[in-house]
Amino acid sequence: MNDSKWTWRGVSLISIATTIVLIAGFGYAVSDILSPKGDVPLTSLPQATPAPQNGAVKSFKVVALGDSLAKGTGDNTGNGYVKNTVVGLAASGVSAELLGNMGINGLTTTGLENKLKDAGVQYSLRQANVILLSIGGNDLFRGADLLQNGGAGNTPAGSSTGTKPSNAAGNQAGEGTTTGTSGGKETNDLTPEALLAALPEAAERLGKILNTITEINPAAQIYYVGLYNPFGDIKEMLIPGNQAVTAWNNAAMDIINKNSKITLVPTFDLFNNHLDKYLSSDHFHPNSDGYKRVGERIVQAIQ
After folding, report:
1. What confidence tens digit (pLDDT) does each residue in 225-254 have?
2. Alpha helices of 92-198 — where are they, by DSSP H?
3. What is the pTM (predicted TM-score) of this model?
4. Taking each helix axis from N to C terminus, what angle separates 199-216 and 119-127, rounded to the nearest 10 degrees?
5. Contact, 158 vs 105, CB < 8 A?
6. Among 1-5, 143-147, 203-207, where is mean pLDDT lowest?
7. Dihedral of CA 194/198/204/209: which sign?
8. Burial class of 88 by CB neighbour count within 10 A (0 to 12, 13 to 18, 19+)
9. Residue 158: CB partners within 8 Å, gap ≥ 6?
10. CA–CA separation, 172 vs 284, rounded Å?
11. What pLDDT, on a 0 to 100 scale, did the predictor assign at position 47?
């Protein structure tokens, strides 16, 4: 009887001890879940990740080349669209630097093709990540043979020779072009076909120029400034000029659409119906306000 009594007591003690161990283990498990402890002290764990900051500020290194528009002829401030572009970029909070402006008065696509062979020009282009290009105006209006038939002093705007040919309103046509009666050639004789005579070959040269620039500097982004019609306020030149300039810009776009590193910056709409406001006294090149508008549009394209 006594043996049985001690047996039950032993079983009871074991049960109590087991219960205590289970309760202690359960308590430890709950504590570990609520307050986990690892081998690394809490004070050395990574702190909260800060919110990501804006990306590094871009640095634009700009080079310009092309004709008198790239040079800024007609802008009495001397800025042209090139300096306006650099100033506009800097005003938006990025770093912008003009490395050089190689614009030349009267330059054609043929002349630019030759310039791109120059080692100094190639070196300058390789330093840039933004290349501004304006070319084609001289080709387009020379296609009508106006330079040869336009009478004395009919030289590209900004050149050092010749006088300013004037139309009936007393405005210089510029860029080797005259309006009104000129050398026996009336403006109403100017047809879209005559103005577009040089387009096929000039457009082909434009394509080669753009390809050459991308070969010289594959990493740079090229911004080609489209043409506008500076004679839209002259009745006889309105339709032929619009058709010729539109055809040129479309040809340029066909070329540019094949290369993601090239962007066409349109200007036709900026000057259309606003020639009196944005053209300089030579009635071809933009004035300071016109160049500022072009610069603003280039900045929009870059950003």
Report:
1. 999 999 888 888 888 889 889 999 999 999
2. 109-115, 119-127, 137-142, 146-149, 192-195
3. 0.69
4. 60
5. yes
6. 143-147
7. negative
8. buried
9. 68, 71, 73, 74, 105, 106, 285
10. 8
11. 39
Neighbours of 287 (CB within 10 A): 17
Is residue 76 within 8 A of residue 287, CB to CB? The reply is yes
Please give the torsion angle defined by the CA atoms of residues 178, 224, 124 and 199, in that order, rounded to the nearest 10 degrees. -50
Asked if 233 and 276 touch (Cβ cutoff 8 Å), the reply is yes
With CA atoms as reference, report the closest residue to 59 among 130, 124, 133: 130
The pLDDT value given to residue 31: 55
Kindly report, residue by residue over 191-221, the tens digit of the pLDDT: 667 777 778 899 999 999 999 999 999 999 9
Cβ contact 283:230 at 8 Å: yes
What mean pLDDT, rounded, does the chain reach?
A: 76
141 Rama class: left (phi>0) / alpha (psi -120 to 50) / beta: alpha
Q: Which position has the token pair 């790239």?
A: 70
Nearest to 65 by CA among 6, 118, 27, 141: 118
The two tokens of residue 154 are: 């009919």
- The single residue listed with the structure tokens 């800025």 is 79
- Residue 264, token pair as written in the block: 């066409």
Does residue 111 surpass a pLDDT of 60? yes
Tens digit of each residue's pLDDT (9 = 90 or more) over 28-52: 544 554 454 544 343 333 333 333 3
